Amino acid sequence: MGAIIDIDHLSKDYGSGTKALDDVTLSIDEGEIIALLGPNGAGKTTLISIICGLVTPTGGTVRVGGHDIRTDWRAARRLIGLVPQEIALEPFEKVINCVRFTRGLYGMPADDAYIERILRSLSLWDKRDAATRELSGGMKRRVLIAKALSHQPKVLFLDEPTAGVDVALRREMWQVVGDLRREGVTIILTTHYLEEAEEMADRIGVIAKGRLLLVKPTAQLMGEFGKKTLSIELDAPLAAIPDDLAGRALSLSPDGRRLAFDYDTRAERTGIARLLGDLAARGITVRDVSTRQSSLEDVFLSLVSEDAA
């Protein structure tokens, strides 16, 4: 599939001197899920707001489905659904009417069968006649997703969609997102739940200080920046790492009972067998070993700290 969103040298400067976005270029393919990660104030929400027509860029262009967001904004906006961070709903309106009304705002004809399908997929059908003020925070966020999907958009932006949602509901919403992708909807996700990005995203982009540091397939990012750590539990504590082993990326726990060995899984030889053999030759008895894979959180923090430096 081709690109549905093309962002070319996009920037946003505010009068105060703040540079919210700095020369961002990105192409997003139809039907993919891309996660944008970054600390607070990195520019994620600004980027989404520009694409959705809520903020005017200082420079650069954005095209959605071939439509320029400034010169052909109606056609571009019709392709987009947005789930914002803030929960803003009419407190006394019924859930089903909120979704129907949003569909009407886009000039779409009434389609109660489609509205029912959305509400059922989000576990909201039983709440269709409830006033939104009666719902929990997680259910209100689901209503926001239903509203964003009401006009059958091709692109869905989820800005921190699971903030304040419990683990069970979060998992259910991940399932909804997966179903949408299978239907061909392109999804752009911002999140602070790094396991969410690792679980769902085809590609991950890292933003810091308004700059897009990188965009890579999730598996490739983990392969390039991730590492594994071998944890070696010793039968008896060590006072220090033997001098002839000190150059092997080894670290010793404060109590001397555990060695940590970082290694690259892509290397032809990991060095694990040699290390264990050398320990045995020195009379150092190993009680147990385990491995830990670097998480996306480790990768993210590494990238952001490198940029700060």
Automatic annotation (TrEMBL):
Source domain of life: Bacteria
SMART domains in alphabetical order: AAA (SM00382)
Gene Ontology molecular function: any one: ATP binding
Ranges of residues in domain ABC transporter: 5-234
Pfam families: ABC_tran
InterPro entries, alphabetized: AAA+_ATPase, ABC_transporter-like_ATP-bd, ABC_transporter-like_CS, ABC_transporter_ATP-binding, P-loop_NTPase
Protein's UniProt keywords contain Nucleotide-binding: yes
UniProt keyword annotations, A-Z: ATP-binding, Nucleotide-binding, Transport
Name of the molecule in the record: ABC transporter ATP-binding protein
Organism: Paracoccus liaowanqingii
Organism ancestry: Bacteria, Pseudomonadati, Pseudomonadota, Alphaproteobacteria, Rhodobacterales
